[in-house]
């Protein structure tokens, strides 16, 4: 399982990676995603817990899917299938 802190850190790292690939500043990405630069900076530092609406805005601005915000190299390496634990009641 992934903790909330780990999820925020993964998002922060991937968001920074995607932004740098485009050679964009935080200010440029914030403008493209229609959000304030300091809010974006908080996401990139894993201090903010962005709402789904803001994740969609960021994904659209970066021209990726929301899922790709959480997985490095999602286009070239497929994510492993999710495994559900069976519960016997």
How are the SSEs placed, and which strands pair?
Elements: H1 4-21, H2 26-32, H3 37-44, H4 52-62
Helix pairs in contact: 2-3
Give an overview of the whole structure:
The model is unreliable at 74-83 (pLDDT under 50). The protein is globular. It has four helices and no strands. The protein has one domain (4-69): lambda repressor-like DNA-binding domains (434 Repressor (Amino-terminal Domain), Orthogonal Bundle). With 89 residues, the protein is an all-alpha fold. It starts with a helix and ends in a 27-residue tail after the last helix.
Keywords for this structure?
single chain; about 90 residues; mainly alpha; 434 Repressor (Amino-terminal Domain); 4 helices; globular
The second-level CATH architecture is Orthogonal Bundle
Number of helices: 4
CATH class: Mainly Alpha
Instruction: Give me the CATH fold name.
Output: 434 Repressor (Amino-terminal Domain)
Radius of gyration: 14 Å
Q: Mean pLDDT, nearest integer?
A: 87
Q: End-to-end distance, in Å? A: 22 Å
Spell the H/E element sequence. HHHH
Say which CATH homologous superfamily is assigned: lambda repressor-like DNA-binding domains
Strand proportion, as a percent range, falls in under 5%
User: Number of DSSP strands?
Assistant: 0
- What spatial form do the alpha-carbon principal axes imply? globular
List low-confidence stretches. Answer: 74-83
Q: Give the number of domains.
A: 1
Helix content: 40-55%
Give the class from helix and strand content and strand pairing.
mainly alpha
């Amino acid at each position: 399982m992934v903790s909330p802190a780990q999820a925020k850190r993964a998002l922060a790292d991937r968001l920074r990676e995607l932004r740098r690939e485009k050679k964009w500043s935080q200010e440029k990405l914030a403008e493209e995603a229609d959000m304030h630069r300091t809010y974006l900076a908080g996401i990139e530092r894993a201090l903010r817990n962005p709402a789904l609406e803001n994740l969609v805005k960021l994904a659209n601005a970066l021209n990726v899917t929301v899922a790709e915000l959480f997985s490095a190299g999602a286009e070239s390496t497929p994510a492993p299938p999710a495994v559900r634990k069976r519960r016997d009641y």
